[in-house]
Input
Amino acid sequence: MLFPSVSGDTVPVLLAALPSDTADMRASFANLKPAFDTFERWFGPYRWNRVGYVLTSAGAMEHATNICYPDFAADGTLADEDLIAHELSHHWFGNLITCARPEEMYINEGFADFCASLFVEDLHGEDTYRTETRKNHHDVTATTHIRDGGWFALNAIPSDITYGSHSYAKGSEVARTLRGYLGDSLFSSGFKTVLAEHAFSAISSEQLRDALNAATGQDMSDFFNDWIFQPGGAAFMVDSFSVVPSGGAFDATVHIRQKTRGGAALFNNVPVSVRCVGISGDSARSIQNLGGASSVITVSCPFEPVAIRLNDDERLALATTVDDREIGSYAQITLVNSDITVTSSFTSSAFPLRVEEYWTPADGLAGYTVSPDRWWRIEGQLPVDEPHGLKFNVDGRDGLITAFDTGLMQPAGGTAFNEDSLVVLYRPNPATAWGVVPASISTIGSATDKYARLDMPNLNLGDYAIAWRSQPVGIGAVPVKTEGWRYFPDPANGSVSVLAPPAFPAGAYKVVVLDIQGRVLISLNASGKQTNVDVSKISSQVAFLNVIPASGDTLTLGRLHIVH
Output
């Protein structure tokens, strides 16, 4: 065979196998040409004098021009076509340039894994690419530190895990994120330049950074500091937002927090997509640079947003995993990317649900050890008067690949962990304090083996976390009737804004601020969907923010920290 190259040359292709294996090999390699075309389009011309594959019984090795390929993966099907693409892509990453040190094996193997996903995207489309990258992202976020025995910077991988999950799977995720930082055009042109200027040489992470700086005109220092030169990861979350009309559009002021895991310092200058969602499903997206412990941004959209989502295009491998789908009439359905099971009756109406799992510490609550490992945010449209529930598997067993809760299941304050102390926490929004919601505990045989299941019968939209009672407490259940109400900012200085749920009649409520003794500090009739309450004349203190709808039932939204 001959492959025409973008250079104008033709590249000979040789596939070698025992006579009995040639037919299967030919069938399994049917998409070798599309892989060749994908890599030339993204990274420039093939620089070698031929493409060669030879079947062996001893695994795969990317020798330049003569790849050893495992015979079991050439079985006449296309099941391992991504492996064929991975090995071919080493002629750009691994052979044309190679890592300067084995500690930086991600330059070879991580980029090759990412190249295989580019091949899948070109051949099978964006939906297949999204499905596969979501799976890889979950595997990396949830298990890489378990598989490799710790959190490591990509440029400092220990020798015993040179070919571990960090180098391959996390390396692929970081390459995908670099694509998201630069955009397709600049990512492609930048690497074409880097590969041309550093061809047939070893390259370090620092040299790669500097070469990309020169090739793209972008300062990649923060990217390498955040994603390459330190372990762990980071997630950004919407804390609150307010909306005001602006001409024919609306301006949303969004308060955002960042949390990290695995020993990472706070990330900086991260180009996160911010998506405004309207009540009818309208959508507007922009890219905003985020960094530090907190950020405040203002985005404009042509409709009034009722939700703000971050990185929902999943361009960046942040420390969140997500399932976004319609839930039908099932006894139960497990959402594999967010590690949660939704229960519903066979007569339940279908409804959309978005579950985002944050792999960062949850906010704390006095008297409880709240998970430092993960928590959930659930959005969607629940059918009225139909029961739905959640099931959480909680696993802190050392060394197991499913042990996502090892940080939670540790002694605290002199109290030993026991599964009978586990609880589910809920809050309708981040402005509201956590409260305990009813859930049954199944210790699955033993209350001390750090493996249990929590069944929660009443699903509401909002945030969820797992905790255990590590001190005597007297906290009550969370008031779920406050679902959809928001207030911001908290802490407040001059004023606090109260925003009613989208379906709530405008102005049909009163805002009441109480001090800790229950005395009324402010009582104000609402002026619309959003009511601004002046707290500038109230002394600094922790107060309680309530709303009283026309029905007369007082709803406590949560604590309000007034600071001056």
Q: What stands out?
A: The first strand starts at residue 2 and ends at 4. The mean pLDDT is 92. The first helix runs from residue 22 to 28. The two ends are 76 Å apart (CA to CA).
